[in-house]
Amino acid sequence: MPTFALETNNNAYMETVDAYNRLMEHGIRPSMQRIAILDYLLKHATHPTVDDVYQGMSGEIPTLSKTTVYNTLRMFADNHVAQMITIDDHRVCYDGNTEPHVHFYCKKCGKVFDLFKELAPTMDRQFFCEGHLVDEKQLYYKGICKDCIAKDI
Ligand SMILES: [Zn+2]
Ligand SMILES: [Zn+2]
Questions:
Q1: Is 77 in the same domain as 112?
Q2: Ligand 2 (ion): which residues have CB within 5 A?
Q3: Does residue 85 sit in the same domain as residue 20?
Q4: Ligand 1 centre and the CA of 80: distance in Å?
Q5: Whether pTM exceeds 0.70
Q6: Domain shared by 90 and 103, yes or no
């Protein structure tokens, strides 16, 4: 019995179901670890890195390896189950929200925020551009976040 199924919180249960359904919709076999990793992403909309996900989950699933987390998140991104965010030169982070939205990177604290009010490039289907096949569009903004601005005042 996986630990997440024991949670009594109704919302947490719903998200686990969401994770299962999303994997099925994308033709991915919903193994316990895959459900758990996607579930973690859906519950942590902070754009976690492989390390963040691994450290956040290893307490609950001690058998989980960092390689599994790495490979699973990559596979999710390849299959559009999650978004890979490469806004920071030094780390890759992941987003369970696959709706097009703009990301903002704070150059001071390194956090990645969602900007839902900005117009994001939509991506309905793949298309050719000057002979290249495009299957992903990302719009990244960078600057200083409101928390860091508040700290400076
Ligand atoms: Zn900041
Ligand atoms: Zn996001």
A1: no
A2: 95, 114
A3: yes
A4: 28
A5: yes
A6: no
